[in-house]
């Protein structure tokens, strides 16, 4: 090989590496509003200013009603303008799209004059008119006070999960034309009750030109999915995120998940972020924190009925969840991370903000590493 050819090959390799790592330089790290200390009490403008003061780069407001309870156009635009003035991103949520969850959001039905779908449409239009077009939604609810699988809407006894998914698909079909006309995406969360397999099918059927996925990195563990494998599955459709880590423990009823700051749990962040950033180089990472507890929810891998409700579950990912739990146990025994007893205690107020800032620091360190040329 000539010196010139060697130089061209080296340049080509460098350009390829630069293309693969450049997306990490464009990612912004912010926070979800629902568990950010002080946000519910002080409102959207206070939250934006506080986030800016802390050096974070944006806010994912769980509901557009946080910006204006009456959907007043002037109030909505004022919040968005403040974010722009501060150099922050703003993303906003709408409401659940599973009609069987609709009775638990009467305010949306009221917005629609008794029509839940019309209420959803009003939320979407208000966001679009304010200049916000990446919109959160989810498919169902989780009752944290109900133990076992019945706390999850996936295992409701009055309606099956396949029936809920079918009804959700019809709602998406009804919303699609409006979303396309407004240039919006409604991004369904990897919420506690739904698998990434099911979300991908919903989005592909409803149309990726109007629908996407909000990737919650810790929720996929509750469906016994390997977070990295889940990231690869959803990556082509991810447009928003909820990022947090998790501790896993093997228990008498299977596996127990506790929320943890990014970098303090079982997730391999470089491996998880690479496929996401390859598809969405300007993806925002919105940290979802904790409130009074770390949500120790069960993954009932010893329950045959639980398995029967997860037709897409593979033994490979089940084994990975067990491996991750065993690895966390060994780290806890070495004193590197908190043990189960510690994580079972209430979260002190002082730690709730630290959850967000510590997560942001870890994510930024990972992004710096990913941005380095190979």
TrEMBL record:
Pfam families xrefs: AP_endonuc_2 (PF01261)
SUPFAM superfamilies listed in its UniProt record: Xylose isomerase-like
Biased composition regions of type Basic and acidic residues, renumbered to the chain: 1-29
Record flagged with keyword Cytoplasm: no
Limits of the Xylose isomerase-like TIM barrel domain: 49-280
Location of region: Disordered: 1-42
PANTHER family: BLR5974 PROTEIN, HYDROXYPYRUVATE ISOMERASE
Name of this protein: Sugar phosphate isomerase
């Amino acid at each position: 090989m000539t010196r010139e050819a060697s130089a061209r090959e080296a340049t080509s390799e460098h350009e390829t590496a630069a293309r693969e790592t450049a997306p990490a330089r464009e990612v912004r790290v912010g926070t979800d509003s629902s568990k950010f200390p002080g946000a519910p009490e002080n409102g959207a403008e206070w939250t934006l200013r506080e986030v800016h003061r802390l050096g974070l780069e944006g806010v994912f407001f769980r509901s557009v009603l946080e910006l204006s309870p009456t959907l007043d156009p002037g109030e909505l635009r004022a919040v968005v303008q403040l974010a722009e003035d501060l150099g922050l991103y703003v993303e906003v949520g709408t409401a659940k799209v599973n009609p069987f969850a609709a009775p638990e959001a009467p305010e949306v039905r009221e917005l629609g004059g008794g029509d839940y779908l019309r209420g959803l449409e009003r939320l979407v239009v208000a966001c679009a008119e304010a200049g916000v077009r990446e919109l959160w939604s989810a498919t169902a609810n989780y009752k944290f006070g109900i133990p076992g699988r019945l706390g999850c809407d996936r295992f409701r006894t009055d309606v099956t999960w396949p029936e809920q998914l079918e009804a959700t698909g019809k709602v998406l079909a009804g919303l699609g034309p409006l979303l396309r006309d407004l240039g919006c995406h409604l991004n369904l969360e990897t919420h506690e009750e739904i698998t990434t397999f099911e979300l991908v099918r919903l989005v592909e059927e409803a149309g990726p030109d109007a629908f996407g996925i909000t990737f919650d990195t810790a929720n996929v563990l509750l469906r016994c999915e390997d977070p990295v494998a889940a990231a690869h599955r959803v990556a082509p459709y991810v447009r928003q995120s909820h990022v947090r880590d998790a501790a896993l423990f093997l228990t008498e009823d299977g596996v127990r998940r506790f929320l943890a700051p990014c970098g303090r749990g079982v997730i391999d962040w470089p491996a998880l972020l690479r496929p996401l950033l390859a598809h969405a180089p300007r993806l925002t990472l919105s940290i979802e924190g904790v409130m009074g507890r770390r949500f120790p929810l069960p993954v009932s891998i010893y329950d045959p009925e639980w398995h029967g409700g997860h037709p897409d579950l593979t033994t490979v990912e089940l084994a990975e969840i067990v491996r991750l739990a065993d690895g966390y146990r060994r780290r806890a025994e070495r004193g590197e991370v908190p043990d189960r007893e510690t994580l079972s205690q209430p979260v002190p107020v002082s730690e709730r903000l630290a959850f967000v800032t510590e997560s942001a620091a870890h994510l930024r360190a990972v992004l710096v590493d990913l941005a380095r040329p190979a």
